Amino acid sequence: MEFLEINYYSETLHMEQSMNIILPEKSDRNPDWTVESLQDLPALYLLHGMSGNHSMWARRTNIERIIRMTKIAVIMPSTDLAWYTNTTYDLHYFDALAKELPNKIQQLFPQISTKPEKNFVCGMSMGGYGAWKLALGTTQFSYAASLSGALVFGNDEPFPFGPKEYWQGIFGDLKQIHGSENDLFTLAEKRKQSSTPIPKLFSWCGRQDFLFDNNNQAVEKMQALNYDVEYQINDGTHEWYYWEKYLENVLEWLPIDFVREERLS
Fold first, then answer.
1. How would you write the chain as a 3-class SS string?
2. What's the pLDDT at 155?
3. pLDDT, greater one: 50 or 29
């Protein structure tokens, strides 16, 4: 596998950004792979949570080992603390990831597919929200997975941490989130009314996670809208041990030839 750290200038954000990328490569470890078979590669975008950045998935999980026998590109971008959102302070993080980044990827790595049916997104916590938001708010992704996602917002402060001023800086008037472009269920309703393909959704959350009820509500809402949602529940808390473990379940759910390491002879 090739592991790359890319630093690039974002014209959308008007500042330097970073991302990590893992690419499959032909080598003596994969003698059956050909250059031709590594074209039109499926891509999985992995999104970080609060307090994280583009490096978190590589630092907290064994993602390279997990996918080492799978022909897939993994793209790990950063959104800082902006919730994958076009903020009220005029930094358009959603646009940077939903519109600008796929074009940048295609310029740098033309072997990565641009087809929605081969582009997937997964995130943990804040990144779970971002994954569903990117899939519902664009036509770029056909599958979106959330691990312990922060999916349902309240009408006052979205979550019981951080000052109200922080949340207002991201979303504006907190009482106006429902019905806005930052509300996943509003996006889901609009998507159902459009003529574009509907993404498949995945959610995992541990019973001991403080976002467990949040995930139950989100899945119920999406199922009421007739979305195809794979919902998995196990014991677990809000930590990387579980997100790494259930990332493999996400990979098995995706329409790719994922090979678990323990299956290898």
1. CEEEEEEEEECCCCEEEEEEEEECCCCCCCCCCCCHHHCCECEEEEECCCCCCCCHHHHHCCHHHHCCCCCCEEEECCCCCCCCCECCCCCEHHHHHHHHHHHHHHHHCCCECCCHHHEEEEEECHHHHHHHHHHHHCCCCCEEEEECCCCCCCCCCCCCCCCHHHHHHHHCCHHHCCCCCCCHHHHHHHHHHCCCCCCEEEEEEECCCCCHHHHHHHHHHHHHCCCCEEEEEECCCCCHHHHHHHHHHHHHHCCCCCCCHHHCC
2. 64
3. 50
Of residues 150, 158, 164, the one with CA closest to residue 218: 150
List pLDDT tens digits, range 163-218: 889 999 999 988 889 999 999 999 999 999 999 999 999 999 999 999 999 999 99
Domains of the chain with bracketed CATH: 2-263 (3.40.50.1820)
161 versus 31: the higher-pLDDT residue is: 31
Distance CA 74, CA 258 (A): 13
